[in-house]
What does this fold into?
Amino acid sequence: MNSPCSGETFSGPLLSWYALNRRNLPWRKNPTPYRIFIAEVMLQQTQASRVVPYFARWMKRFRNFSMVASASLDELLLLWEGLGYYTRLHSLAHACVEIVENHGGGFPRGYREALALPGVGPYTAGAVLSMAYNLPHPAVDANAKRVLARYCDLEVPVDKGNDALYRERSLFFMPAGKAGSFNQALMELGALCCLPGSPCCRDCPVQKGCLALSRGTLAHRPVRLSRAKVRHIQVIVGIILWNGHVFLRRRSQGGLWPGMWEFPNWEWNGENEAGSIRRLFMREYGLEPEFQFSLSAFSCSFAGIRAKMFPLVCTLSSLSACSGENVRWTGRSELFDLPLPSAHRRIAGIIPFSK
Ligand code: SF4
It folds into this structure.
């Protein structure tokens, strides 16, 4: 360990800074294991400001693990809609069931037991155990890793494969009996001061010991592996109207937006929209839609993909049999009560039901 990276020069000033500068976030009030767990799952890959209204709605509806465990999938999805990364919601729901069935309705105190819950990795386990029970486990998110990489001038890339090393560094700095505050302070410093582009070193409580600052390597810390390229695609979206209703399908439980409803859609090469949509509906649902007109195309991004969406309004001359658990005909008012991916909610808002 390099000498400037000592626990004293780091954790003392960091905790004092945190006491004065921490944001007034709702999950920091009344920090029960349940509230912290829900907040930590919501915060995965999502900014705190975005999570705040979702957290408030969720807490109003579900006050404990048991209420989540007994809720329907559609109700959970509807409260989560727009927050993205829906797999974490499914894992959260399963974790709540396990907590109720195997842990008496309380988040377990053991690290191994916490890690065994669906969707709970080292970060979430460390965050809940340290913040709810003050147990000495590190919780190192992207903000904390950036601070550690700069403060210790680490050449080790901040990629998942190196998480264990960053957790060790954090544990080295963690003062006894202050795990919860320390973990939050470290992440808060990354969120408010040691920013990704240009860090505010002048305001930083640990600038005296910061190796990247003193060595002039800031521009190269943290080290990242190169990102995957964004894939550009076109997507054809079929909106079949029949007697004031529109046709929807439910997405599978695996992959993106698991269990949500959507208008059937397919990756498209741009050829003959009317013929393409008819052929695809025939093949998958035995329906023969007549293309009527296009709605405005728009672009959206998800999971490393940039998609241009082409919504096509179609009608049916006759309704052939097409039913099942994963398809439905839905009226206008009911449509807005269903969990839809954001691109499909956008389309739902412009469907001309009355035409
Ligand atoms: S001195 Fe600057 S680079 Fe170093 S930890 Fe503080 S904000 Fe980050």
